Amino acid sequence: MFPSDAMPLVAQGVLDERLFDVTQLLQWRYGDADRADIPLISQSAEGVAPAAPQAARQTPARRASSRCAPR
Question: Model-level pTM greater than 0.70?
Answer without folding.
Answer: no
